[in-house]
Design brief:
heterodimer, A: alpha/beta, six-stranded mixed β-sheet, four-stranded antiparallel β-sheet, 8 helices, B: alpha+beta, ten-stranded mixed β-sheet, 12 strands, about 55% helix
């Protein structure tokens, strides 16, 4: 699968708590090009995670449109969004969310169960995904036998095993030390530059955001400002 | 599919202690259910076998514990002097009994010696036993499970003290252990010997010739129905009116008045099943709560809400199914292959657990699993992924 662009137009999102309306996104407009690596930054409550959920089809906007590739998400039903997610999006969470009773290979294999695929093909894809993240020799380890960085690598392998258009990472280095964070960010970078995946990453860490081509700063539900990482852009142009 | 099965099975082992307790909570009511259904079924078989003997039981109309005058026997027999329909009338006096050095109650009854072999043909006494029975007024036919339990054999002399006034002591000679009798527990002796001991004890004459009930052996179903009505009509408006029933109805009433085992066992089984449902439901709710993050992740990966519900429900059914298997196998092994199988239950020789009861019990265990897993499954289906993910942050 190739990369997909992301376009948000006048996106509003509000939650209700005890009948009280809490606006999170207030007319957000945003475009992320196919194959771009974008970082989302902003204070707590600025709408970063909500934006990620909308782009990932986990939630729908109160108003406005969300387009990912050719799919217009706001008009899709719950079940259609579920099916769409399995084919077009890979999620990477801060706390990895691996199934503790399954091995690394089995965790990576899980999303492939949603595809009509021979067992041998599944195994091949799992091995490839684990090799890409550098864990080809840890296939039979369970999450509790892996370090935090290794667990996150398994989670990344699980996110890429279906070859999705878009990778959505919610603070992927938030629970890791500096050195391991760097390894994970380099891996995401490689997925972006070598495999052309569109990546949207929520982070609080400016160093992590520095790995992205562009950093989008959200504040009070709107795009406050954006920065282009010149070094990354230049490297991308050179390659 | 093999990965899903792996996931299901490993989920069961996540919290081994909790799973083991749930399996035990399901297994116990299944054990009770298997035993109660088996006992009830075997009691019913005993009653059906008794019904096939074409005997009427005549008891006092007021209460089963009120005795009848022995004179009733002759009046009933006079209803059919040709003995075309009424083949034999047997007076029976219940004396119960205990051994001098044992508190274990016995079921011993005095019967008319001449008519007993005619009316109780299921005892299939040999010619030698028949002769011994007729010849010896102290003869005792012992129920085979009683004989096995007491270690009695033909030729033994046993002394039994009656359980009812005047608590006479009877000295019997065992002449048969009745291997074919429907009732494996009851012992039979001569009614004349019972009357003799009562007279000797100084009871007033009016209290000597009394019987607990009369059994009337009929020639066929039509005669059974006819005399069931006629006998009661015969004693209408007398001081000792009768209530005549076929043997099955009589024994059923007797069992109900004595201990009502079927009802009590069924009630017990139902209560424990309800407890098992609650225990299993509690486990499944805790499991769901523990794994809410995983459920949300699976949904984020593209698994449907229905899949989440299926996973939860299948785990519950699987867990309770294991409990059901344990609950079925435990009594099958205990009563089939260990000394526990020798334990005596009234009117039942040996508890034989049939495949039908096992199937019913396993089905019930799976139903417990379905009910217990229903709520977590519904919750899993309704799970809002972003709320669940947020709760983990």
């Amino acid at each position: 699968m190739g990369a997909a662009g992301i376009v948000l137009r006048d996106v509003h999102k509000a939650y209700f708590k005890d009948r009280l309306e809490i606006p999170v996104l207030a007319g957000l407009n945003l475009e992320i090009a196919p194959g771009e690596f974008a970082a989302l930054m902003g204070p707590s409550g600025s709408g970063k995670s909500t934006l990620l959920h909308l782009v990932g089809g986990l939630d729908t906007p109160t108003r406005g449109s969300v387009r990912v590739g050719e799919s217009q998400l706001e008009s899709m039903s719950e079940s259609a969004l579920t099916a769409w997610r399995s084919r077009h999006v890979g999620f990477i969470f801060q706390m990895y969310h691996l199934v503790p009773v399954l091995t690394a290979a089995q965790n990576v294999e899980l999303p492939l169960l949603l595809f009509r695929m021979a067992s041998s093909e599944r195994k091949r894809r799992v091995q490839t995904a684990l090799s890409i993240v550098g864990l080809g020799d840890r296939t039979d380890h369970r999450p509790n036998q892996l370090s935090g960085g290794q667990e996150q690598r398994v989670a990344i392998a699980r996110a890429i095993v279906t070859d999705p258009d878009v990778l959505l990472a919610d603070e992927p280095t938030g629970d890791l030390d500096a050195r391991t964070s760097e390894e994970i960010l380099n891996l995401l970078n490689a997925l972006n530059t070598e495999f052309g995946k569109t990546i949207v990453m929520v982070t609080h860490d400016p160093r992590a955001a520095g790995h992205a081509g562009r950093t989008l700063h959200l504040d009070k539900g709107v795009l406050d400002r954006e920065e282009v990482n010149a070094r990354k852009t230049a490297a991308a142009s050179a390659s | 599919m093999d990965l899903l099965l792996t996931l299901l099975l490993r989920n069961l082992g996540r919290n081994p202690r909790r799973s083991a307790l749930t399996v035990a909570a399901v297994a116990m009511p299944v054990v009770i259910l298997v035993l109660s259904f088996t006992i009830v079924a075997q009691l019913n078989r005993f009653l059906d076998d008794s019904a096939a003997q074409l005997r009427l039981a005549v008891a006092h109309k007021t209460s089963i514990i009120n005795p009848l005058p022995y004179g009733h026997k002759a009046r009933i027999a006079a209803l059919d002097p040709q003995k075309r329909d009424i083949i034999a009338v047997v007076g029976i006096a219940w004396i119960g009994g205990v051994l001098a050095n044992d508190r274990e109650p016995l079921t011993t009854m005095g019967v008319d010696a001449d008519e007993f072999p005619i009316a109780f043909t299921d005892h299939l006494l040999t010619q030698q036993e028949r002769e011994a029975w007729q010849r010896d007024r102290r003869a005792l036919i012992v129920g085979r499970s009683t004989a096995a339990k007491m270690g009695w054999k033909v030729g033994d002399r046993v002394t039994i003290r009656a359980s009812i006034p005047p608590y006479s002591e009877f000295s019997f000679n065992v002449i048969s252990t009745a291997p074919k009798a429907i009732d494996p527990v009851a012992n039979w002796c001569h009614l004349s010997y019972v009357f003799e001991e009562r007279a000797r004890s100084g009871l007033p004459e009016s209290s000597v010739d009394l019987v607990s009930f009369l059994f009337v052996k009929c020639s066929g179903r039509a005669a059974l129905e006819r005399y069931r009505v006629e006998i009661d009509r015969l004693f209408e408006n007398t001081p000792d009116e009768t209530q005549t029933q076929d043997e099955k109805a009589f024994l059923n009433q007797f069992i109900s008045q004595q201990f009502d085992l079927p009802t009590n066992l069924t009630l017990l089984a139902l209560i424990t099943i309800a407890v098992a449902v609650l225990a299993a439901a509690n486990t499944m709710n805790m499991s769901f709560r523990d794994r809410i993050g995983e459920a949300a992740t699976l949904r984020a990966l593209g698994f449907s809400a229905r899949f989440g519900a299926w996973l939860s429900l299948t785990e519950s059914v699987l867990l309770c199914g294991i409990g059901g298997c344990v609950g079925v196998l435990a009594p099958v092994i205990a009563f089939g292959y260990t000394p526990i199988g020798d334990v005596q239950i009234p009117l039942i020789v040996r508890l034989e657990i049939g495949p039908g009861v096992c199937v019913v019990a396993l089905t019930l265990a799976l139903a417990i699993g379905t009910i217990a897993g229903a709520w977590p499954a519904i919750q899993g289906g309704r799970l809002r992924v972003i709320d669940a993910l947020r709760s983990l942050e």
